[in-house]
Structure formats: C-alpha cells, structure tokens
Amino acid sequence: MTKLLLFAAVSFMLTGCAGVPEKQTPVCQGTAIIGGQETTVEIYGMRKVGAQTQYRAGPPFSWHWVSKNNFTSTTCK
Fold first, then answer.
1. End-to-end CA separation in angstroms for the chain
2. pTM of the model
C-alpha cells in the first residue's frame, strides 16, 4: 500500500506542471460586448483563415481562436 502511495505521489510531482501554459504577453487588446457590457479582452495572437481574421483571445474567450467579428474595436494592426 505504501508503495502505491509513493508511486502516486512521484507521478503527481512529475506531471504537476505539465498542464500549466507558459506565460505569454498580449500583442494587443480588444473590446467585446459580453452580457450587454463592454469588456476589455487581451489578445495573444492573430491569424488569417481564408478571408477571415481570427484572434487568440484570453478570458472570457479562454485562449481560443475567435473571429474578429466578436470585437467592436481592437488596438491590433
């Protein structure tokens, strides 16, 4: 039983930080209407998919790629 607990503890320590994303700095900011209120959202990346521009947005978009149409304005160039 103690070997099992020791194995579990070592496994946890080795993989404990594997799910933590590295710290990134935002490249620009955008304003989105969420729940009827203007919210400032930090943007961490930009890409073009076909003719559509997408931003990698932080909270409340959870670092997902979202369309430029989700923002009323941005400071991105």
1. 59
2. 0.69
